[in-house]
Amino acid sequence: MAWQKIETVNEDVVHDVAMDYYGKRVATALSDLSIKIIGVSNTASHHLATLTGHQGPIWQVAWAHPKFGSLLASCSYDGQVVIWKEGNPNEWTQAHVFNDHISSVNSIAWAPHELGLCLACGSSDGNISVFTARPDGGWDTSRIHQAHPLGVTSVSWGALVGSGLLDPVYKLCSGGCDHIVKVWKLYNGTWKMDCFPALQMHTDWIRDVAWAPNLGLKKSTIASASQDGKVIIWIVAKGDQWEGTVLNDFKTPVLRVSWSLTGNILAVADGKNSVTLWKEAVDGVWQLVTTVEP
Prior knowledge:
This protein has strands at residues 14-19, 25-30, 34-40, 45-52, 58-63, 71-76, 81-86, 92-98, 105-110, 118-123, 128-133, 139-144, 152-157, 171-176, 181-187, 190-193, 206-211, 221-226, 230-236, 242-249, 254-259, 265-270, 275-280, 286-292. The chain is mostly beta strands and 294 residues long. The protein is globular, with a radius of gyration of 18 Å.
């Protein structure tokens, strides 16, 4: 497997990197209050655009599915969530700015595109907000009040399961400064916790959560990464109870986890600037596949 270095055209801290659906563009979230859009190919990378408007460091960026057009969401320490829209090529404008949170917005995630244009946001104010686009161009808002009272650090959408589009189920998972992972489900327009008890095996802040794609199978898997150095794989066991298994203790804070499109390989980024890929063996034991060299 060949790796390519992408020049980010800046000297500031890069907090997040997101590749678009087609793998042709990369968005970087920076501490200098800007977002850089970079074009990538098999042999080179080049700067396409710089997006400015936030008043604080930008923590995350997320591309919407291309069926909704060329849209990019960003969240920042300034408490804002911005939806950026590309008109002419490489010309971006702020299509919408959400100011629903009173503190830093730390994480954003687009729902599976089958559920529509829907964005979940987790904030240090303890709340999760979910913005859903309406046909008239406006947005509806639902909230999970005090999902994690000490602050929400991460959110991730559940994959479509069962009958899918015939009876779509809206599910989220979230992690917080309370060391807890929670699962949420939308019931008749109201978000309610869908895991009893909450998922508690970590001993420090949750840094990231990632719900695995399931390719239509009735299976739910969540990975959680923590300041305590551990990555835990959560699966639904009998009676809708979640059970956790420690994938590995990295002996350093684990910053991000990300699933492959097929949901069978997990990428883990830790505080020692190491990225490793893990795969579940037939016996259910998670094994190290490779280490990505920086």
